[in-house]
Design brief:
The complex is a heterodimer of chains A (420) and B (114).
Chain A (H helix, E strand, L loop, with lengths): L1 E8 L3 H12 L5 E4 L15 E3 L8 E2 H13 L4 E3 L3 E5 L4 E6 L2 E12 L3 E3 L2 H4 L9 E3 H11 L6 E5 L3 H12 L3 E7 L8 H8 L6 E3 L1 E7 L6 E6 L12 E4 L2 E4 L3 E3 L2 H6 L3 E2 L4 E2 L12 E3 L10 H20 L9 E5 L3 E5 L2 E2 L7 E8 L6 E6 L4 E7 L8 E6 H4 L6 E8 L3
Parallel strand pairs in A: 1-2, 1-8, 2-5, 8-21, 10-17, 11-12, 11-17, 12-13, 22-29
Antiparallel strand pairs in A: 3-4, 6-7, 7-8, 9-18, 14-15, 15-16, 19-20, 22-24, 23-25, 25-28, 26-27, 26-29
Chain B lengths: L1 E4 L8 E5 L5 E3 L5 H11 L2 E2 L2 E7 L5 E6 L3 E2 L3 H8 L3 E3 L7 E3 L9 E3 L4
Parallel strand pairs in B: 5-8
Antiparallel strand pairs in B: 1-2, 2-3, 4-7, 5-6, 6-10, 9-10
Classes of the chains: A alpha/beta (420), B alpha+beta (114).
């Protein structure tokens, strides 16, 4: 068995930023394990631009954003092992991995989980119809087209109007395919408004809101896809069928944090995020094991992943080189019904920072509103927003000085619209 | 008065622009929204991102972009041009693949070391 001070699982944007941050904060013996041939993760297939506006204050493509961090990593002594699949992590921080050199076990004093997420598939949303070829997740199609050099189809229907679905609508149109429809079960798109404009409107692709795919017809390959309008309970309304003659159906129907390893290690997961439950320093329920990026909760912007991963990297350095935080929680964060989750879910006592970041998502659209943080009785702090939507992650910074005024050990976060 | 969604950044401000009042822009969260709205209703531009064929690299496609936005009406012509190109590794980020693509004044550059 080999030993290392800090092992990072995954070399995408989260793993890269965590590795650089841990090194900058004094950790010298760092091992970064990556499944793919090269570093960068999903950024390598996201060849469109729009990355880095927050972090670098300029607009980069995915590969360019990844290259910035790969360059920073080259300035460090972090050891990168690519083409390596981690199979298991035990609760005493032993990593089991396999690559062309064989089977390896590594005992790590600290671990950062940065495995990212994967796409929901046809099975996860139970679309009826035949099991023909030509049904792909949008991200798989993105990798085929942008990295492997294969076109996925000629006449395409896309289910799901999240950002990946929208980006692929434009990409496949540019490559000469006919994108017949983008179909969304909700009454609103979960993608960014700018992507609706520049990916659908620019190419004249119709967006069918409150519609879903109810049948797939094809012998060997997709021949036809049927969509139907849905009612407020998302049930198909008979008589509203529209059929598209097409050869391909792309699914962009959500992402799931990839937590098999976390589960095997016995880390407690939050059923709302499908990711580990964490403290404000990104520490999971196993001391010395941290998580960041899409393995923790699905982000909209890589810039936020970077910041979160830097927090995890610094926290791992604090754990290894300075005083580890106690495994006790001082405050639990409770979200109101209008909020689907918060990250972190809990706070340590005596936090050294001046403020802690809390990410959350709202369940419905809010016009001009206040975000309130209370201890159940008194309002500790409030933040105002012009507009909030489920598709856009919110971030607030809780001043730690205010927390000392809280009675009890639960913080409640809620949103209320300001009456006009 | 026209309504637009700003696409300069992920915030997606909802802009209103009044052509009768010297293209007065409202609803913009920053200065860049003004330039976007004026360009969008006079001559809309987009940054084109795509790939070209590459030989001798770890993957068969090299990601590329126009180094500045090009007129929207030139996107198809630019795609036709880059579909005919084959480059050979090694290529560095920022290398010019096509100068002045489709007469747009923008260069097509590599976005990955390969």
């Amino acid at each position: 068995m080999k030993n290392c001070q800090l092992a990072i699982i995954g070399g995408g944007p989260a793993g890269l930023a965590a590795a650089v941050s841990a090194y900058q904060n004094g950790v010298r013996d760092i091992l970064l394990l990556e499944r793919d041939k090269s570093l960068g993760g999903i950024l390598n297939q996201c060849i469109h631009n729009g990355f880095g506006l927050h972090y670098f204050k300029e607009e980069l493509t995915g590969p360019e954003y990844a290259a910035r961090f790969v360059a920073m990593l080259k300035e460090t002594a972090v050891r990168v092992v690519s083409d390596t699949m981690v199979l298991d992590i035990t609760d005493d921080r032993v990593i089991h991995a396999v690559n062309t050199d064989g089977y390896h076990t590594i005992r790590a004093d600290s671990i950062i989980l940065a495995m990212g997420c994967r796409e929901r598939t046809r099975g996860a949303i139970s679309i009826p119809g035949t099991r023909c070829a030509g049904i792909l997740t949008a991200g798989a199609a993105q990798r085929f087209v942008n990295m492997e050099g294969y076109m996925v189809g000629k006449r395409i229907v896309i289910l799901g109007s999240g950002d990946i679905g929208l980006i692929m609508s434009r990409r496949l149109s540019l490559e000469g395919a006919e994108v017949l429809a983008c179909v969304e079960v909700m009454p609103h798109s979960s993608g960014l408004q700018r992507n609706i404009v520049q990916c659908l409107d620019d190419f004249g692709i119709p967006l069918y809101l409150s519609h879903t795919v109810t049948d797939i017809i094809g012998r060997d390959r997709v021949e036809r896809v049927v969509i139907q309008k849905v009612d407020e309970n998302r049930l198909p309304i008979p008589g509203t069928e529209i059929a598209f003659d097409c050869d391909t159906l792309l699914l962009s129907v959500g992402l799931i944090p990839e937590n098999e390893l976390s589960r095997q290690a016995g880390i407690r997961l939050d059923p709302r995020t499908n990711g580990p439950e964490v403290f404000e320093n990104m520490e999971t329920t196993i001391p010395g094991v941290f998580a960041c990026g899409n393995v923790l909760h699905v982000h909209d912007l890589v810039d936020f992943v970077t910041r979160e991963a830097q927090n995890a990297g610094k926290s791992a350095a604090d754990y290894l080189l300075r005083d580890p935080m106690p495994a006790t929680e001082a405050y639990r964060i409770e979200a109101s019904d209008d909020i689907s989750y918060t990250v972190p879910q809990k706070l340590h006592p005596a936090i050294p920072q001046k403020a802690v970041s809390v990410f959350f998502r709202v369940r419905r659209t809010f016009e001009k509103s206040h975000i309130l943080v209370t201890d159940g009785e008194t309002v500790l702090c409030a933040f105002s927003r012009e507009r909030m939507a489920p598709g856009e992650m919110e971030q607030i910074y809780l001043p730690t000085a205010l927390l000392r005024r809280a009675k009890g050990n639960t913080l409640y976060i809620s949103c209320e619209e300001v009456s006009k | 008065m026209k309504e637009l969604t700003c696409i300069v950044c992920p915030r997606g401000c909802r802009l209103r622009i009044d052509e009768t009042r010297d293209f007065l822009v409202m609803g913009n969260g920053c200065e860049r929204g003004i330039d976007y709205a004026k360009a969008e209703i006079t001559s809309p531009v987009r940054t084109l991102t795509s790939t070209v064929k590459i030989v001798g690299a770890c993957h068969p496609r090299l990601p590329v972009k126009t180094n500045r936005p090009i007129p929207k009406k030139l996107l198809r012509e630019a795609m036709t041009i880059l579909n005919r190109i084959t480059v050979h590794a090694p290529i560095r980020i920022g290398d010019v693949i096509v100068k002045n693509i489709a007469g747009s004044g923008a260069d097509l550059t590599a976005t990955r070391d390969m």
